[in-house]
Request: fold
Amino acid sequence: MFDPKKIKRIAINTGGGDAPGLNAVIRAATLTAIHHGWEVFGVRHGYRGLEDPKELVPLTAESVRGITHLGGTILGTANRGNPFESVVKTPEGEKTVDISDQVVENFHKQRLDALICVGGDGSLRIASKFADKGIPLVGVPKTIDNDLSGTVATFGFDTAVSTATDAIDKLHSTAEAHERVMVVELMGRYAGHIALHSGVSGTADVILIPEIPFDLDKVCDKVLARERMGRHFTIIVCAEGAHPKGVEMMTKGPKQAGREILLGGIAQYVAQEVGKRTGKETRSLVLGHLQRGGGPTTFDRLLGLRFGAAAVRCLAEGKINVMVALDPPRIKTIPIAEAVKTMKAVDLNGDTMLTAREMGISFGD
Reply:
């Protein structure tokens, strides 16, 4: 049985795609753990640091000084670090092997008592599996996509939306000057939260999200309706996972072992088709990893700090194998297995969607 009174050494890792606010979590968790009299270690590069003990680095009040406002993560991260599906090279080519038992053994060899896992759905699914293997842990929800169920918000989302909205704002002036259709592609593999929030905030005319397979004729209808009203430019926002009815999501090359298939190309496709069908000059833009970069907004800094401190409090109170979650105005906990059970998609009947439709924004349906 887990006894919080016996905690002496804990570790923190950051896995999956980076998100603004990761360093805020690391700082708050480290300082709070030190306040409890514990030693703190950072696991470099996601779970890879638990495969190689040399990647375990001590965290001190000095080492986390002045990092709250920084983007990225001082520990590094990795998208291809799943110990349950580790990629190894053999004479026959790459294959995947399960080295999770080795990770558990290394965890105990380092005399670690608990782990704070900061990650999105993929990283927290891995964490849930390690919880089943006996590693006491607490999850912290991180993803710019805001698609983790059980929490009202994940840190990184607010910053990503702010970055995307700023880009959409800038597109308006050049689109109007040249009387063009501008199509901007944002992140959002299976959930369109970034596209929806930034599209509405940036007064886009069309928003295409994975939750609503779109009809290109409907998209063109919106472009032509604006033409008739004397509005000779149109802003279209696409989540990368958006796709036409009856068509799969657009990808860039074959799937690589140990990682999600890369998406891309929807903005270019929509721009080409809209140009062809309406005769309008079109341009496409992919915002890409700009949405992950830069310092976190005030909201994401504070949320990251709250999550980091709350994760340590959970351990001190003997709560393990849970994820901290925002339930305004408080931070609550839910079982980590429950947190990763379902993805949080856009609520098609939610207030933001209703607002968008009532303002005349088209979703291509």
About this structure: The CA atoms of residues 160 and 291 lie 5 Å apart.
